[in-house]
Amino acid sequence: MDMQSxxxxxxxxxxDTKQQAMDVLAPHIEQASQVMVxxxxxxxxxxSCGNGGSAGDAQHFSSELLNRFERxxxxxPAIALTTDSSTITSIANDYSYNEVFSKQxxxxxxxxxxxxxxxxxxxxxNIIQAIQAAHDREMxxxxxxxxxxxxMASLLLPEDVEIRVPANVTARIQEVHLLTIHCLCDLIDSQxxxxxx
Length: 197
Ligand SMILES: O=C(CO)[C@@H](O)[C@H](O)[C@H](O)[C@H](O)COP(=O)(O)O
Ligand SMILES: [Zn+2]
Hints:
Elements: H1 3-41, E1 46-49, H2 53-66, E2 78-80, H3 85-94, H4 102-108, E3 114-118, H5 125-136, E4 140-145, H6 150-155, E5 161-164, H7 170-193
Helix pairs in contact: 1-7, 2-7, 4-5
Bound molecules: D-altro-hept-2-ulose 7-phosphate and zinc ion.
Residues 53, 171, 174 line the site of zinc ion (ZN).
């Protein structure tokens, strides 16, 4: 296949995945935004984590809350747990890579805070341990998953929210995760600061 055809095929696959996900995910994205708004109105903060591309997504989300999304508004409290290389390497070195997020959550998480836990497989051990730590700290979990939800899906409590992309290819799932993060930012801003339409 020539490269132009390959590119068109990748664009089409991304469009198709988003089209299939739109109606399935919309109610869950709305519910997640309400959980987040409620936390922010009650002095809560957002912690976020993921591996690889999902680490980038976790940071993308926190920067849009801390700095800005599409409008001028006050900074909102969010911390990506993927950025402190000294903390992450020491936890991985002294304990286990599986604990790099959970140990930070046990230190920083407060009841009523929200954990945005991102994994396309739902099976990354450090994300599973992060969810367990969040529950121990009485936080609410918003899980961005894919495939069959993996081990993460079965760990979630009734008050948690799973946003599971109906797809099996990691890159396609990640592309919908990013769109979901932008939806969450838009919904948080409009609920807290009014609709701009
Ligand atoms: O971005 C990509 C692939 O698109 C990779 O870096 C990918 O995020 C990594 O392989 C992750 O370790 C996958 O973890 P997960 O989504 O299964 O939790
Ligand atoms: Zn990627």
